């Protein structure tokens, strides 16, 4: 998207505002499917948690994607967006049996990641096939909060507990139709991913009724000019060769599944904010914007870096600024970052704001959550209204404290 378009959207819809470019989402989806076009059966399940707006889900549906969901609410969003139940996989962590039963009754693919629920579900519903999430004990990911396949992770059933899984399957006579793993996010070393895949292949040999193997996701996307990213094309060639070999060994054509979130939507997103104040202290120049970590928590939570561009003065002389928010806590988006000269009222664009930005937003400090706009077919579409004060108080109940 060009600067002129983003400025017009900020003018028309106000700031702060999230903007998503559908063309980029489509190109990322096509890039991933092309990388695995020599596998007979590939299924791309978009990870709803990255960006769950129904209009974005409808776009994914139009591309032929399935959905990866982690809550019953995400399942219902997928159904609302037009996905059939068989296109949705439900992979919760630490939820009650009751929630899993609700998902099963809706007809979606169940993915179980602990022995307790596996035994309870298999005993009660032996005729409903389930997938099992394996913990391969592989440390991968760009941050400890998003490394989920290591030995001390709360996610998945340990590969060392395969005998326990087989005992439960034998005792309940349940059917295991899929094996799944997810090692973490921001994975750069594809050899680590391929190593974990070998563990998954070895595990799959224990189950005779498999229909698919789900390799998760976690592909690294670039966050700044010249940044490194996962080489999807090379990874596609290597995993395709190994997967096709395994299918021959297994004696059946299985479906290769992925569940990308960030890879599909991160680079499609822009977060537009207005500079309220330019404040000089003894050693720092602050650009104070009309947002905070209530709208974009990733820099504080993960230490992530989002490229920031002054789209009101893109060709201006670069100076050093610390970009900070209006929250009543330290909420620093950038420290001493080179940005084109900033004047109060300028619009700053945060890039890579498509994944885990709005979906992690909150009403902290009783601030409103922003609007969302989808740029589709060269036209801006409002896909979520900006919140109002009525949204802040609508579920609050005032009681009579005089009694």
TrEMBL record:
Catalytic site: 328
Biological process terms in GO annotation: lysine biosynthetic process via diaminopimelate
Pathway: Amino-acid biosynthesis; L-lysine biosynthesis via DAP pathway; L-lysine from DL-2,6-diaminopimelate: step 1/1
Catalytic activity: meso-2,6-diaminopimelate + H(+) = L-lysine + CO2
Residues reported to bind substrate: 298, 302, 329, 356
Domain Orn/DAP/Arg decarboxylase 2 C-terminal, chain residue ranges per copy: 18-354
Domain of life: Bacteria
UniProt keyword terms in alphabetical order: Amino-acid biosynthesis, Decarboxylase, Lyase, Lysine biosynthesis, Pyridoxal phosphate
Single GO MF descriptor: pyridoxal phosphate binding
The protein's assembly and partners: Homodimer.
Name assigned to this protein: Diaminopimelate decarboxylase
Organism the protein comes from: Xanthomarina gelatinilytica
């Amino acid at each position: 998207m060009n600067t002129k378009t983003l400025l017009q959207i900020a003018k028309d819809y106000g700031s702060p505002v999230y903007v998503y470019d559908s063309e980029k989402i489509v190109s990322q989806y096509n890039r991933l499917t092309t990388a695995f076009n020599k596998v007979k059966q590939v299924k791309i399940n978009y990870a709803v948690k990255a960006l769950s707006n129904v209009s974005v889900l409808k776009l994914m549906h139009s591309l032929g994607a399935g959905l990866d969901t982690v809550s019953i609410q995400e399942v219902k969003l997928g159904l609302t967006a037009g996905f059939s139940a068989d296109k949705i996989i439900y992979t919760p962590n630490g939820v009650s049996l009751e929630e899993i039963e609700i998902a099963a009754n809706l007809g979606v693919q169940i993915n179980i990641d602990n022995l307790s629920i596996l035994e309870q579900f298999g005993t009660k519903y032996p005729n409903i096939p389930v997938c099992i999430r394996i913990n391969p004990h592989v440390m991968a990911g760009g941050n400890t909060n998003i490394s989920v396949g290591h030995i001390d992770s709360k996610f998945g059933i340990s590969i060392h507990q395969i005998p326990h899984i087989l005992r439960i399957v034998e005792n309940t006579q349940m059917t295991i139709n899929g094996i799944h793993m997810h090692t973490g996010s921001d994975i750069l070393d594809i050899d680590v991913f391929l190593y974990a895949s070998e563990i998954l292949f070895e595990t799959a040999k224990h189950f005779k009724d498999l229909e698919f193997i789900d390799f998760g996701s976690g592909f690294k996307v670039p966050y700044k000019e010249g940044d490194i990213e996962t080489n999807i094309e090379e990874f596609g060639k290597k995993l395709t060769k190994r997967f096709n070999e395994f299918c021959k060994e297994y004696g059946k054509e299985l479906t290769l599944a992925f569940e990308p979130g960030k890879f599909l939507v991160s680079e499609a997103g822009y977060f537009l904010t207005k500079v309220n104040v330019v404040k000089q202290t003894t050693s720092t120049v602050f650009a104070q914007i009309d947002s905070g970590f209530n709208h974009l928590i990733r820099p504080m939570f993960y230490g992530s870096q989002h490229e920031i561009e002054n789209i009101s003065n893109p060709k201006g002389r670069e100076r050093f600024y610390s970009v900070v928010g209006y929250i009543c806590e330290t909420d620093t988006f950038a420290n001493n970052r080179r940005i084109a000269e900033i004047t109060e009222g300028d619009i700053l664009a945060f890039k890579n704001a498509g994944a885990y930005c709005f979906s992690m937003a909150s009403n902290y400090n009783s601030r409103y959550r922003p609007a969302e706009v989808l740029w589709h077919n060269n036209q801006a579409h409002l896909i979520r209204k900006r919140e109002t004060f009525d949204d802040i108080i609508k579920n609050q109940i005032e009681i009579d404290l005089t009694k």
